[in-house]
């Protein structure tokens, strides 16, 4: 092969690598107003129990995310239902995916364990919980409307 073909093939290979690498970082640079997303989930879905916004101390007691998140918003009901909204703006996408999302998944599992013994009819909501990670954001919705939650999340996590 002549040098032109070699350089052309190398350039094409490099371009393909760049394109493939960028696919893995989809949504990495998105910016989300987490308060607006949480409010959209709160008002866009019908809940059995009115949800209240928690203060940072309560969030810290429910989720061990100190030092992992820049900001968080959590809405919960009275405890009569498992309904919940949680939105976390993490320090970076890696922290969101590898540290905060597993914490949220563990929280949902502990809720399943708790509700199965005292309000078992709520377990179905928890089993259908929507947990999404996009860029540095992790979002949880526990409701009777996971499809509605996914649609709202789709609007914000693009």
Number of helices: 6
* H/E element sequence: HHEHEEHHEEH
Distance between the termini: 44 Å
Major sheet characteristics = 5 strands, antiparallel
Low-confidence stretches: 3-25
Instruction: Work out the helicity level.
Output: 40-55%
Mean pLDDT: 87
Q: Which overall shape is indicated by the principal axes computed on the Cα atoms?
A: globular
Global structural class = alpha+beta
Cα-atom radius of gyration: 20 Å
Total beta strands: 5
Strand order of the largest sheet: 1-2-3-5-4
Strand content of the residues, in percent?
15-25%
Topology:
Elements: H1 3-24, H2 34-44, E1 52-53, H3 56-62, E2 69-76, E3 84-90, H4 93-118, H5 123-127, E4 130-134, E5 137-142, H6 146-156
Antiparallel strand pairs: 1-2, 2-3, 3-5, 4-5
Helix pairs in contact: 2-6
Describe this structure in words.
- The protein is an alpha+beta fold.
- It has helices spanning 3-24, 34-44, 56-62, 93-118, 123-127, 146-156, and strands spanning 52-53, 69-76, 84-90, 130-134, 137-142.
- A hairpin with a 7-residue loop joins strand 2 and strand 3.
- It is globular.
- Residues 3-25 have low confidence and may be disordered.
What is shown here, in short?
This protein has six helices and five strands; from the N terminus they run H-H-E-H-E-E-H-H-E-E-H. It has helices at 3-24, 34-44, 56-62, 93-118, 123-127, 146-156; strands spanning 52-53, 69-76, 84-90, 130-134, 137-142. Helix 2 (34-44) runs antiparallel to helix 6 (146-156).
């Amino acid at each position: 092969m002549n040098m032109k073909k070699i350089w052309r093939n190398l350039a094409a290979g490099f371009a393909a690598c760049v394109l493939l690498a960028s696919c893995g970082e989809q949504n990495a640079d998105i910016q989300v107003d987490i308060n607006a997303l949480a409010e959209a989930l709160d008002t866009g879905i019908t809940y059995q129990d009115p949800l209240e916004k928690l203060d940072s101390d309560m969030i810290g007691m429910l989720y061990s995310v100190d030092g992992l998140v820049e900001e968080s918003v959590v809405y919960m009901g009275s405890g009569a239902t498992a309904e919940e909204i949680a939105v976390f703006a993490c320090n970076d996408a890696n922290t969101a995916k590898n540290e905060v999302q597993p914490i949220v998944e563990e929280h949902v599992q502990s809720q399943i364990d708790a509700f199965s013994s005292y309000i078992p009819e709520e377990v179905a909501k928890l089993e259908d919980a929507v947990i999404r990670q996009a860029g540095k954001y992790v979002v949880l919705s526990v409701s009777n409307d996971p499809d509605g939650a996914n649609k709202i999340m789709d609007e914000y996590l693009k």
